[in-house]
Amino acid sequence: MASPAATVILLAALFGLVSISKSADPQECAAARNQNQQALRRDKVTVLMNGFSESRIPLLHSLAVAYSLSPIVSSVLVLWGNPSTPPRVLRQLARNLSISSSSAPISLLSQPSASLNNRFLPRPSHISTDSVLICDDDVEVDSKSLEFAFRVWEKNPNRLVGLFARSHDLDLNRREWIYTVHPDRFSIVLTKFMFLRARYLYLYTCVGGARMERARGIVDAVRNCEDLLMNFVMAEEAQVGPLLVGAKRVMDYGDARNDGEEGVRVGLSSRKGEHRKRRGWCIGEFHRVLGRMPLRYSYGKIVDDVGEQGLCYKGGKIVFCDHS
Ligand SMILES: *[C@@H]1O[C@H](CO)[C@@H](O)[C@H](O)[C@H]1NC(C)=O
């Protein structure tokens, strides 16, 4: 059962009662449109790390520094999405990041609003690479796997390349789309860690007219599902599914948004059910407003060599991630 609050939001979104966000700053879209694609660097990636929780700042800081030390990283942009964080804390964080012993520059950018669509602003004045790595502030990936995932993306620049996969499916009885995990296939990769062409940020934010505007409005109404919409955008553009890469070592410190999806599945079943229900609803709505279902299945996982091991931090314990 969805909570009453969630139901109200879903109904409000259904009937268009929640204000629909307009596309991004037209100037930013114009600048992105005019960006010289040939001049973008192809040998390095810009890391876009989402930050929200003040309690995770020490972890965010150490992850940002680790990324900045990788030879494939051109710069790290920490995108702060919590509008209620005191400016004093953000000033301190910006200072701390700028003086840390990093290699590539690290900057802190405050999101212009709480909209999750801001995660995919094209930022032509900050991004000068062909690819971006979108990641959360609670997922730690070893440097070799980071580089390997980038190599996989380089060979498949039109696809999303991620470490965490999910699926859409059709519930034939209820005749509705659902969000699920299949053991043998997937059609969605999560923004916990995902490489993509910077061009897709532009397509998500600036292209697609009224249909995409309505789809972005759904993201704002449910405060969720922006990652699913990005998977729609990529599949529509490239006509293929995403790619899944196996990492040697992943620490997933857990994200409230993804609770009940990864690792230990104890005491979270109702939350998990609600989360999945809402994500399934988003898939159905995106299909409805965009007028088609572009998501496609991919199969298998690309691994560097043997010895892959996933570790998840859940409920105070380190456990093996369930990759099945
Ligand atoms: C900044 O660094 C100082 C000194 O290490 C630390 O005490 C403080 O908590 C940090 N603040 C933020 C917001 O990162």
UniProtKB/TrEMBL annotation:
GO MF entry, a single one: glycosyltransferase activity
Gene3D superfamilies for this protein: Spore Coat Polysaccharide Biosynthesis Protein SpsA, Chain A
Xref: InterPro entries: GT64 (IPR053318), GT64_dom (IPR015338), Nucleotide-diphossugar_trans (IPR029044)
Signal peptide extent: 1-23
Transmembrane segments: none
A Gene Ontology cellular-component term: membrane
SUPFAM superfamilies for the chain: Nucleotide-diphospho-sugar transferases
Glycosyl transferase domain mapped to chain residues: 46-304
Keywords: Disulfide bond, Signal, Transferase
PANTHER family given in the database record: GLYCOSYLTRANSFERASE FAMILY PROTEIN 64 C3 (PTHR48409)
Family: Belongs to the glycosyltransferase 64 family.
Record-given protein name: Glycosyl transferase 64 domain-containing protein
Source species: Phaseolus vulgaris
